[in-house]
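Notes taken during the Thursday session

The instructor put the following on the board and asked us to keep it in front of us for the whole hour. The protein is Sialate O-acetylesterase. We were told not to look anything up and to reason only from what is written here. First, the residues (498 in total):
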Amino acid sequence: MKKIFQTLLILSFFPAFAQLQIADVFTDNMMLQREKPIRVWGAGNPGEKIRVNFLDETAKTSVKTDSSWQVVLKKHKATTKPNSLVVQSFQEKIIIKNIIIGDVWLLIGQSNMEWPMQAEMHYEEAKKEAKNRNLRFFNPNYIGKNFYGSAYDKHQLKNLSNNILFQKTKWEESDSSSFKNMSAVGYYFGRDIISAENIPIGLINLAIGGAPAETFIDAEALIKNKKFSSKVNGNWLENDALPVWIRERGMQNIGHSQGTNNHAYKPGFAFKTGIKPILKMPIKGILWYQGESNAQELARVKEYPELQKLMIKDYRKQWKNKNLAFYWVQLSSIDTTNYDSHFWPEFRNGQRRLLGEMDHVGMAVSSDVGNKNDIHPRNKKAVGKRLARWALKNEYGKDIIVSGPLPQKAEYKNGNIIVEFKYTGKGLQTLDGKAVRGFSIDGKTELTGEIKDKKIVFPSAEKPEYIYYNWQPYTIGNLGNSEGLPASTFKMEVIESD
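Then, after some discussion, the predicted structure tokens were revealed:
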């Protein structure tokens, strides 16, 4: 039974039978990952002989009984020279043109990752430099995009019932026209990498507005995890282990349907329909901007670091790359009068703590560019550039400061609370030139402190249990480093110094 299901799943990723086909991610203008074996795959008639040509190499295979085929070509260095990939059977030929080789990054998350350049605050300025044939993107639409609380129609429901979430698209070169729909975070990230390294960058954007983390995690990984197996129990629309908001939206979209409960927010569905079909394609790393849909309930907030850790481990396992880079954006800031953001400080702190629990990860702080009245801050330039710092340091070997200040320890000594930081550059400073603010010992009452190189000293008559920074949904803190990068929200235990 399992073998039959796997065969059906493979076939669902390709149109049915008869003609020679190549996987949807292979289109003109595409980017291939440098210095990794190149896998090319598709579908055809069982037994049919297939020949694949790329650069100076030819590979041959035959279509399997399940109608799938695959070849593996040798790895290549980065090149900006356009090349063609030719796939042939006895009667048919597919030619994929204008392929270059560089680094491919996967973009996933929800609407703040999806947010397009044309709605970003620096769009008009960026448009002047948008033309760059070495920056390419693959940006498929998905079923339900911009439908919000409306009921899906028969066509949408049919696609979902057939496990189709992402619609066919083509790779595009960046120019002043095409880049307007490109992920703004991805654009600024890619532009900085190209500028620093002169390596072509390809961006695959599978972000989904409003999506919970659970949809991007393989359902099998959730099932096998004792903490999270309940998330795939029964009908997801009625499952209390999932965020309330996403279940309500799901009911609005598909609750009237008797044919399917598939939806972009269903646990494992974005993975099954978007990530799994490209697992054979090597990538350089992953950029993740998600959390708003998992941050409205305390139970969901507390479990999130472990949920994200499961996701990262599973992606590395499935891509067969234990060091696969995974960089995320810490939630921004918004006032509670405009959004249910009461638990955001706790959520941001959980994202920060995860940094110290895994290797080959990084986090871009974004609370300083939040919008008090809007869940979608328009300054994606700062976010993309901060993510690029992590990649430039860890993946490309640049000697740069990757982050704003992160706390290393907090101690009570001689009547003072002393907080020490890393990533200070040439020293701590305030971003507005005023006295440091945003610290407290109860999450509310402001502390007065003094910056001393890599530390901040706060006079205190007693040792508090914790010290907090930016412990508000809409942050007021102004701590940064010499690079102008903001400090992360944190809650840290204060220890007694000997």
